[in-house]
User: Fold these one by one.
Assistant:
Number 1:
Amino acid sequence: MNKPLIASLGLAALVASGQTLAVERITAVHAFPPSLIYTQSFLEFVDKVNERGEGVVQINVRGGPEVIGLSEQPDAVRNGVVDMAYTAASFYAGTVPERDAMVASNTNAIYTRENGGIDLLNQIHQDKMGVYYLGWFDSGVSYNLYTINEPRLDSEGNLSVSGMTLRSNPVYDAFFQDYLGAQPISLPTTDVYSALERNVVNATGWTQIGLKDLNWDRFLNYRIDPDFFSTDMGVIVNLDSWNGLSEEAREILQEVAIEHERASAERFEVLAEEQQAELEADGMQVFRLEGEAGERFSEAAREATWERMRRQMERHPMGLEHYDELIEKFNDL
């Protein structure tokens, strides 16, 4: 058989098998604007997938909250409007209350990936929401309360919320309302800058990373210690979309996600310390709750979160299944 004929037959075979050679494409959105470091972390993950998955699988990022509102993104994934979202699990707490295990956690994705905690959470996401929980990114970063005005204490040394107009979102609500006794104003991240500027709110919670990215430090003058909570940012994928991918594509996505869980947790631990020091160098003052008052503050944040998770789980047909196991796996006791 001559060479031209062999080449023609080879080309015909490639055309005939074109479906198996087609690159699988995943559409994605992210919760926050590209300027925020959390979004940048997700985009780094996308770049890693697209590099390793060349010729196999590619993630096409459609944008952020300007494309689909941040609170609407989880349902958009669940309903197949997009395949993937990088989002805070707090935005779908009513569907998967077990996500509070991440919020109340005192550890990170490295520990919980190794002990099976993230695999358990993934199975719960599939059962309750019809999405695949690909990875817990940027984990282990704590929150603080930040205020414009100097905080005050009550007669027992506890934080007083009198005169404090506190901005909230779902992740904070149980702690702010049940323990602090505040009546916070719920605002999305994108509206907080103008709310601080116009003094609609004079205090907010935020993580130990990214405050300067949002320019909130122009208004906030005090950080209240101790810190509390843990970030719950991660990637969810529509379950039908996930199951429809080839085994090779799924392996690439999962491998890169696990690598990024570790890399982002390690990097953000260092970055949190650096950014807190930078804020203090720029004039932010630390207001520390001392002794038993600080212990009560920290314990209340955890207890309020676990109790919220318990109450919400009890309303679901699965009940408290996995409750104790989640506490065990998401706490490095």
Note: The mean pLDDT is 91.
Number 2:
Amino acid sequence: MLALDEIEIARPVIAQSPLLKDQDLLRVLIEATVEHQIEVARRPHISGRVADAIIDRAEPASLTALAGNRTADISEDALRRLVEHSRRIAALRAPLTRHPRLNDALAAELYRWVGDALRQAISERFRIDDPRLTDSVSRATVDAASPGQIPRLAHDPGNTDVDEMERRLVTKLQHAGQLRAGFLIRAVREKRLSLFEHALAALGGFPVSQIRASIHSDSPEALFLACAAVGIDRAVFPAVLDEIRTLSDGLPGAGDESYLTRTTVTPAAAVREFRSLMSRLTA
């Protein structure tokens, strides 16, 4: 009776009462208001049976609440149905992007219709092949390379033709509005260090010589600041650093990595600190 009462009375009962069982929660979903249904979807540790019933009803606000409920018993099939609903319900997309049970296949499906910011979040968790980005890179590479040239996968300081090709590729992507932080992660995963260097320089407004100096320094701090300046999350940076070290003979060196324990660095602050640090390193 209390769970079906006015929402101000029902809310704490639905959220916390251990006496409510699945059949009681299902009754609330059928008989009560949308506000009551939302509280059921938010209830900690709801069963798969209740989660499926919420998805069956397809009420947008309840679905969004369920997607944000990390403790709900949601099966892979139920999560797939939520991803399908997210095609028409935009509010579902952000919580699904962060959902701990999201897998590679569902992430790829979700990737198709989320915005750029959420695409970056997905690409940081999963290896997603973006057909639009792949096509753009392929077209720009063909345009940038003269006949007979084959793009190399890693930066060769002695190969100025390839380096110029990578620079022109980055310029084309930037003019097309497709150069973002997620592209940097893709570049290092594909072992294209030169492409990473030019892309990071273009995104941050830095000279590419400073980016290369940060990679060949004794500490990763300068590279960390450059990455933070363009929006690469601190939690993602260690993986990026490992990839870069495999491409540059273990550089940057270990140095003092206490910077990783700092509070979040804003992009604007990271730009200032990077430029100040590089002016000292290159003086």
Note: Residues 120 and 182 are 5 Å apart (CA to CA).
